[in-house]
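Follow-up to my earlier ticket, as requested here are the two runs.
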Amino acid sequence: MTDAIARRQQAGLDLLRAARILPIVTADDAEQAVAVARALQAGGLGTIELTLRTPAALAAIAAIKRALPSVVVGAGTVLDAAQLGAAEAAGADFIVTPGVSRTMLDVLAGCALPVVPGAATPSELLDLRERGFRLAKLFPASAVGGIALLKALQGPLPDLMFCPTGGIGENDAADYLALGNVACVGGSWMVPRDWLQAGDWDAIRACAERARALADGVRR
């Protein structure tokens, strides 16, 4: 592991451990993104992942960083070097991928930001580990084994930490957070599409408050 990768991985681990719950937001426009981020922050969740799944995503990242500079914004669903560069230019604080190719591993290794590369299998995790990564997004978590898989990975890969994402909700997030190799849990249950489209910021704030309390109540 190079010193640079180690430092960035530690920075990523520190921010995820501080967050504990990572809301995953897909915004239709920059104004909506700022309103969502403000509601989440008011509810105690000041770190978010904004996915690059809409044409407005990069503008939304930039708008959040202008309006709410204390919010930590990760760019999610980053698939290639071009998207990563655009996310950096927009002001993203960290990068999240759903998976990695060999080419993308090279890109992530040279990224100046903390990165959370995605993986779904032990073989993929070994590839990440060989390149110096010790932090990964388990995705799609519930579909590939969820809590049982994370427990199984603790034995052979005790130095890896995870942010499981995919199929996790308010009902089981605490069970994931109680695991020793889970730094943070990602999910979209705090920001369902119908609430975003209706502009129901109070509902988002209230759900964020419950998520914050849930995370704070977990003892490992």
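Run two:
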Amino acid sequence: MRILVAGATGAVGRPLVSQLVAAGHSVVGLTRSAAKAATIRALGAEAVVADALDAKALRGAVVAASPDAIVHEMTDLSGASDLRDFDRSFAGSNRLRIEGTDNLLAAAREAGVERLVAQSYCGWPYARVGGAIKSETDPLDPDPPQQLHRSLEAIRHLEGTVTASSQPAGIVLRYGSFYGRDTGLFEGSFVDQIRRRRVPLIGDGNGWWSFVQVDDAARATVLAHQYGRPGEIYNIVDDEPAPVRQWLPALAELLGARPPRRVPAWLARLLAGEHLVAMMTAARAGSNAKARRELGWRPEPVTWRQGFADIVGQRRAA
């Protein structure tokens, strides 16, 4: 099958392209940067350069590629390690979730694409009520902190638009918080902040998070392309959701850092904003039961504890 991966050089895009090529698919990697085309070709795929926010250019690229299916992994995370100004950090990604998704779907329809799988997020978007672990049918937050409004609106748009599409048939994957060597939680600036004790444990640290290793997220995406049901959403997370009070000190210890400082919630609201307090004290995590059942996916590693230790071990070996 011929598959176009939009965002082919991103955290999930790179391992996804490699896995699709290894599975025998003809893969086209879409990037907006001509400088990254060589990276895509090195992974064994064809490279095409187009900006997803330029509807005409994107349409031409998709029609010329003539794929059977598309995977939407487009993000813009430059500078996203500073979560205090969340709106500004994720403005580029939110444009891709709204304008980029609309442009990609329009191009896919013109090219006769059969299936489109799109990236979303599992974690803080869930409503901060009830149990700590949520399924795909649980509601999203009806009243998020102000700094999260635009991102949640963009996520709602992407999920609603993709799952409502019948041509191409749309599927959404809510990935947990990414980690991998030099990416996600192990991106250099975040690791440095933890080592300098600049990522505090806020309040009771009872915000629950879900994680997924980037190679494993790519593997789930391959399975979703094969077995996912049109119009459905799947949480792609490991087997052990965890509160911040558990995973943050554990990560600091693995990195050889001192335990994170403790900051009362009232002070964190003044210094960092209500949105960070919510993420650290009230966020909900996700269950992977549906992905296990319907996609046949099993997370490897099964928990962040083993996954974090593996990444730290690789970093030390390197």
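The only thing I checked on run two: The radius of gyration is 19 Å. Let me know what else you need.
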